[in-house]
Amino acid sequence: MDTMSEARLQTQQRSSRNGRETSLWSSGFGMKLEAVTPFLGKYRPFVGRCCQTCTPKSWESLFHRSIMDLGFCNVILVKEENTRFRGWLVRRLCYFLWSLEQHIPLCQDAPQKIMESTGVQNIISGRAPGGAGEGQGPSLVKKEVQRILGHIQTPPRPFLLRLFSWALLRFLNCLFLNVQLHKGQMKMVHKAAQAGSPLVLLSTHKSLLDGILLPFVLLSQGLGVLRVAWDPRIFSPILRALLKKLGGLFLPPEANLSPDSSEGFLARAVFHEALAPLGLWTGALAALRSLRGWGRGRRVCARVHLAQPFSLQEYTINARSCWDSRQTLEQLLQPIVLGQCTVVPDTEKEQEWTPVTGPLLALKEEDQLLVRRLSRHILNASVASSAVMSTAIMATLLLFRHRKLLGEFSWLTEETLLRGFDVGFSGQLRCLVQHTLSLLRAHVALLRVHQGDLLVVPRPGPGLVHLARLSAELLPAFLSEAVGACAVRGLLAGRVPPEGPWELQGIELLSQNDLYRQILLLLHLLPRDLLLLQPCQSSYCYCQEVLDRLIQCGLLVAEETPGSRPACDTRRQRLSAKLLWKPSGDFTDSDSDNFEEAEGRYFRLSQQSRCPDFFLFLCRLLSPLLKAFAQAATFLRQGQLPDTESGYVEQLFQFLQATAQEEGFFECADPNLAISAVWTFRDLGVLQQMPSPAGPMLHLSPTFASWDNQEKLEQFIQQFICG
């Protein structure tokens, strides 16, 4: 769910207030009005499709072309037409009548289903520890199950649920101007729910209000009430009884959820059969806690994105067939960083940063890998289905010092849409830019220059850090081109000085094999949670995709060499032996070319007038992360080790802040970048984690204890950074 402030098409200029600087915010730009709409012609990107490789049946059965044309609806807009009644009294009571007509399915046989579940039956029959075989008869165990189940939940009361939904509807209308939902996305969820299998919903929680919006949207769209688990220690008995009647679930006191605990087997078995992750009350309290800040501001708009559902059973079957050999980051990159090897191994990177929890450790190693790869699929779908907001586009333009904000804002919006990412705004261009700047007014300053023009300047320090975080939301849309541009920069680093003219860089011939190598090196260096690569996609396929994107956007042009086959020759050719052993999932349209002929293919940087600025724009998208990595390599000489992971992250973050004050590049002063750098260096073998009485401690690897190897590491990272 993305929250955005009110942006009406009929936005008028507001009167000046609070002095001279405020008058600059409301002053006109003196430009011709141009409408920016969230679509190109009649085409609007439909985002959030599931993986066609791992779930082809879901990809096809839960989607139809007509879904794309259904458009948006406002889920909190309830009128007379939304009820069965008509009349002037209905128009005044439509919220209450609508809540009475909501269908709330009640599972009357839930206690019996839990009693008959496999886990509970194993304990009753004595086949599991803590059951009838340890001194308790089956009848006593059944009574204990009923007692635990009564503590966890009681049958929900439909009237209380409808009353609460009415109050929630009124509250949301006071808080939001509208809540948009794509009817096509909702139709796909309805199709999945009609299949009869349980529907599991995962939220990325981009806002504290997600917990109140998502359950309400699902209830209003006829998908029923979700249940949420609570810790009973934080509520009084009266409030706990009320919440249980509203559908709340409460953990029994003895339900220690750690899998290696010898107590509470029965409570854990019952609780695992009854828990669901979300409910109406999670966001209700969060919204009430933050009501003070929201109540003083203007009403805002919100959009709820729902990615395409897919069958977990289908994914489990197909995902296991896509596994291949993998190596650690230390095995892949460390020999190349130290100059001991120049060939990049033809294998995938093994890098899993999924939090290791008790339930995950209880699974088999094969199932753990399945869960981790499923999480990467879900993360990819959630990012792809999220709309890019106007503040992200404006922050990117301000960070890269674009002067013509009106024209560049329109251009960057169009480029985002062309890459299949949706945007969360529409309206007059001038009004959009003015409104977006008003949202960022705490982080930018407006200065009036000659002839009535306005100069927008980011405020140094925390303002630049905030703009960098907003700009990061735009990176997924341009990630392939950004990786390719930084790889080209690394390839040219040893030939042309970074400050050299563009014409000089365009003279250099870039072979396809060298481009593949540089792209692979950068792919291995960057964290997987940034790249958002799907587990079923090989690195080679992604390298070819990056190269194709650079050609499509006009940065690279093919160079015909004497005796080579023309690049435009698409006739069918015999597949080489090297291509035949590749898994079926690794084929793309461009893979039909002979691998051996890649050595004879060369490219040049395009000499079009727009290419230098676009190349620099793409390189700077990855600059905050890469510069944080480079500064982390520099910090190896001053860091205090051994230290805990959190302690060393804090050391590095303070160093990034101090460096930002000296150099004026505040985009790196982000604690998340410090965490990514420490984790990457740990995987690379620069830092080693060793046990100690105080817990795991980070030590500097003996290999990188020498300044010479530290310098090699820093130079390896610096080659991808464009000044």
From TrEMBL:
A Pfam family reported for this protein in Swiss-Prot or TrEMBL: GPAT_C
The name this protein goes by in its record: Glycerol-3-phosphate acyltransferase 2, mitochondrial
Disordered, as annotated region: 1-23
Start and end residues of each GPAT/DHAPAT C-terminal domain: 302-688
GO terms classed as biological process: lipid metabolic process
Lineage: Eukaryota, Metazoa, Chordata, Craniata, Vertebrata
Polar residues composition-biased segments: 8-23
GO molecular function terms noted in the UniProt entry: O-acyltransferase activity
Underlying gene: GPAT2
InterPro entries recorded: GPAT/DHAPAT, GPAT/DHAPAT_C
Protein's organism: Sus scrofa (Pig)
